[in-house]
Each structure stands twice: as C-alpha cells, then as structure tokens.
Amino acid sequence: MLHSNSIGFQTFSYARHLCNSCTRILGLESTPKIIQYNDEEVMLEIIPIGIDVDSLLARKLLPDVKEKEESILRLYKGKKIIFGKDKLDIVNGILQKLNAFEQFLNFYPEWRDKVVLIQVVIPGNSNQPKLESKVSEKITSINSKYGSLEFSPVHFYRSFLEQDLYIALMKIADLGLITVVRDGMNTSSLEYIVCQEKNKNPLILSEFTGTAGSISGAIQINPWNTDDVAHQIKNCLVMDEYEKANRHSTMYNFVRSHNSEFWANSFINAINTNCATQSERHSIPLLDTITISESYKNSKKRLILLDYDGTLVPITNIPANAIPSSKTIESLTLLCEDPKNAVWVISGRDSEFLNKHLGSIKGLGLSAEHGGFVRHPYRDWESLVDQLDLSWKTQIKNIFDFFTERTSGSFVEEKVAAITWHYRNANQDYAMFQCNQCHSHLESAIASNLPVEILVGKKCLEVRPKEVNKGEIVSRLLESSSNVGLDFLFVAGDDRTDEDMFITARNYVNSIIKEESDENPLKLNNKLPKSSSDDNNASKEILISNPNLSKQSLDFESEICQLKHLDCFTVIVGNRNKKSNAFWNVPTTYNITDLIQALSKND
Fold first, then answer.
1. Mind listing the pLDDT tens digit for each residue in 123-148?
2. Active-site entry in 86, 164, 174, 307
3. For residues 336 and 231, what is the distance between their CA atoms, to the nearest angstrom?
C-alpha cells in the first residue's frame, strides 16, 4: 500500500487507523493527509461512494413502482411504516434495531397498533446461524408480546427484494431506521433520501456509519443506547412538516451534488494531482558555492539565519557536548563584524545554552526555544511566551516521564516554553518503538485538546506551543525596519523544525515578486520565458516555490529576484533526497562551516 501515490478511504476513521499503524509499527511520520515513506509522500484521500441519483429519480417514477406503492399502502392502511434494509451480519445492528423498536413499544403503548417495522434482510458475507436464530427469537418475542391475531408489529423479509418493490417501500416509509454498529458508506441511507424527495420523511442514522459525518440533516444515534433510539423513533413519527422539510433539504442537496460521478472524478483528480506532483520531485540540487559567493560579494544588505544542532554543529549522543568549533566561532565573529550583515542563530536550545556557547560573539542575534525567546544584538533576552498558557507542560512531562522510566538511556529536557524527550543513548530499535507509541498517544489524546504542536526531531520528541515556531521569528526579522532594502537572504537548517523558516523565506520572496508584478507588469512580462503560461503570477509562484528547479528555472528565478534585488538561498543540511521546502542542499554541517568561513572572508 505504501508504494502507492494515493490511498483512498471511505471514511476519515479508516485513514486514521492506517496512520496509527504506520506510526506504531513502522515508525513512520504521518499527518492526517500524508504518510512519509522512503522519502516519498503517500497521500491519503477521503473518497466516499455516492449513488446514481438521476437513475434512481427516473426509476421511482415508473408505473410498476407506483402500483407497488398503492398495494403497500392498502396493506398497511392507517399504520406508520418504519423501514430498514440490512445484511445479516453482526455489524449491521439488526438486533440493536429490534431492541430499540421493542423499547419504543414499551415506552409508548399508544403506538402499539399504529406502527409497523418492515425489516428486509439480505444474506451476509458469511453464514451466521447464531445471529439468525437470535433475530428470529427477538421478532417472535416482539410480535407475541405487542401483536395480535390481526396484526404483527414486525414484518421480516429474509430475501432480496426486487428493485421496484424496494424503491416503493422507501418512497412510502414514514421513517428510515439504520442502526449499524460499524460500516463504511451506507448507500441505503442515500437511496432513502432520494426516494423521499416528495414526502420528506426523516431518517434515523447510526453515528457509526461512514455517511453520518456528511448527512447532517439525519437524526444521529448510538445504536447501543436503546432507550435513546426508542425516544428518537417517537420524535420522528410526530415531527412537524416544517422540520421534516428543512432536514430533508439539507440531506437531499448533499446527496444530489455528491453523487457517484462526483466522487469518482474527485478520486481521479486526486490521483492525477498527486502523481504529477511526485513525478516533478527530484533530488534537491547541491548548493552552488560560486553563485552564492558572487551574490554575497555583490550584495549590500544581508540577513543570515542559521539553525544550531545539525547545521552549525553535528548531532551528538549527549546534547550538552554539541558545542561549536573554534572555526565556527571565528567565522560567525567575522560575519557579525561586517556592517552589511545581520546574523542570527535560531535554535530549539534554551537561552542559557546559547548564551554560554555563542553569547560572546558581538553583533550576533540569538533565538532560543524555536523563537520563544530572542536576544537582539547588544541587548538582553526578551521573552515572547509570557502571555501563553504553559500549564500543559505538567501533563506532557508526566507522559514523557512514563516513557523515560521504561526506556533506559532516555531523558527529559524541560525548557521554559517546550519540553523534549531524548532517546539518543537508548537502544535504538526499542527506543524508536517507544517513541512511536508516545507520539501516537500524544497525537490522539493530547494534540487535539491542547494548544500545542508535536515535533519528531532527530532522536527526540518535542512538544511546544502552537504559537511558537521558527517561521514566526523569521517573519518578524524580515518585516523589521532594519531589514528594509535586503538584497541577500541565507537560511540554513537540517530538520522538520527548520521547514517553517524555509516556508517563510519562500513566501517572502513570492510576496516581493507579486508586489513587483503589480507595480511593473510590463517589466515583468518582458522577463517571462516564452514557454510560461498566460497566468504570469501563477508561473512565478510555481518556479519560485519549487525546490527542485532546473537550470533554466534557476536563471529565471535569479532574474525575477533581481526585480527587487533580492537573492534568496534556503539550504537543507543532510540527505538531498528527503522532501524539503529548501531550494538547495549541502551534505554535512562541515559544509556549512566551510561556507560561512568562505563568505566571511569574501567581502
């Protein structure tokens, strides 16, 4: 499955189960829409199934259907009809339906001779004699207790119905009742809604069907709550015409617009889009040191943004040992001495660590805890999280402590605005398994209820406030008045936390292009290659945003950026085949050290 471009599910819960399995068992990173596998993205699509509405509308007008309607109405004259059709499977909730109907007759004796449940059962996927026996016993019990010689409240049909009779029953029913306990897209509910185009009678629908999330006009129930279902049956039978019409209108409009053709086209379009996107994805090009050196030399106002771990210094088993080399310190010092440069180190480390190892460099800006704390050059530290509610940290620490006790070699690092679980020194196979378990628990039980973001780093798992990320601090720096006239932007990082910086830088470049396009459309049009589409803004957006630019695209990007005299270099450190929003790649931290040393001596 994971070698597919797209995987389609009828319901969101099915997709969620696959994500959990991939996270817990395979240790893969996933989101509700994407599973990361072998540096590729497997897209998850929620594609329900619909029905052929036009065909059903035409069929229900046939004379044979009309004849059967009249016959059924004569047979059940003066009675309210509740209709259900299900397979004889344990998950289809036939017993739950019968229990609820029995309770309804018990709660409301005035309805005992005024309502009939017509239950059609078609053979299931396997023989289930025990279930069939229980269903038969329950029907016999209800009919003997609440029926008479002249009338039985439950009419049970154990066979396939011919299509005309099935449509006729759905047209004249006063209530549709579906009580499945586990199901995908229940097409019977959709067919009932279409057949009720004229009468607009209500539908009771189990919350465990795949259609429950889409059909908002239905009365949703938990089939295991027998008393509630019984009360809802009564409420639907006495529902006024205005409410019936409103509920049916909502349901019918959805079913009409989201028919089988709509969902088929949606899935095909999703597959085509995903395949096209993935076919365009190539290795991120290695950074052209000659190009960046020339750009640096010719620029007059520069902003240089650097991650710490994995970028300026290699990842180490003991985080406290990840200290910058003398070469790195010297290069950063030289960069900061150049008045044309604004140099920042933006890290997930706390302010104390950054102060200790980089605080002596004059003119260097520092950002700790992913932007939660900043120290502008020649100023004191400033907190950006004072107004945030950090009470969630206690709950997260308890969870991390639980996994630390069970994972030898792991430890918890508590910062002011974030908390991290490290497992670099643990047995990697077992630690990865524990990390997946912890991550899955946090995503399912914590992330949706607290204002936090969960990040999977290199041999660590971090929880931080949603409002705090590296992209926010980069945005602040780019919008700062001190960076007006910026003509050189360099951003380097190595992991998922740095993608926020790359995205912010890309969006900043795109905003400049759009601004220049609006101000000088003729100038920009003259620079566009002949092969570009008529939608110039769209063309520029694609070229600038694509991290895997061809040489022609790079030349074009350079020309576009020069409209505002800005050269932007976003660099991911490490594997060049992994997906990133960066334009360029360097293999190791040593390449970054060599680069900043070369730039510091290049002016």
1. 776 678 888 889 999 999 999 999 88
2. 307
3. 74
* Cα 435–Cα 436–Cα 437 angle in degrees, nearest 5: 90
Output the CA torsion sign for 442, 447, 448, 450.
Answer: positive
Interatomic CA distance for residues 398 and 455, integer angstroms: 18
**pTM of the predicted protein model:** 0.54
Which ranges in 150-217 belong to alpha helices (H)? 163-172, 187-195
Distance CA(196)–CA(241), nearest Å, equals: 13
Alpha carbon distance 309, 307 (integer Å) = 6
Distance CA 566, CA 539 (A): 19
| Region of 42 on the Ramachandran plot (φ > 0 left; ψ -120 to 50 alpha; else beta) | beta
The superfamily (CATH) of domain 53-258 is: Glycogen Phosphorylase B; (3.40.50.2000)
Q: Which residues contact 180 (CB under 8 A, 6 or more apart)?
A: 86, 91, 92, 93, 186, 206, 208, 209, 223
Return the pLDDT at 521.
Answer: 55
User: Residue 307 catalytic?
Assistant: yes
Task: Quote the CA–CA distance of 486 and 299 in Å, as a whole number.
Answer: 9
Which CATH superfamily hosts domain 289-315+322-384+474-600? Answer: HAD superfamily/HAD-like (3.40.50.1000)
pLDDT tens for 551-583 read 333 443 443 344 456 899 999 998 877 778 899
CATH number for the region 392-465 comes to 3.30.70.1020
CB-based contacts of 283, cutoff 8 Å, min separation 6: 548, 576, 577, 585
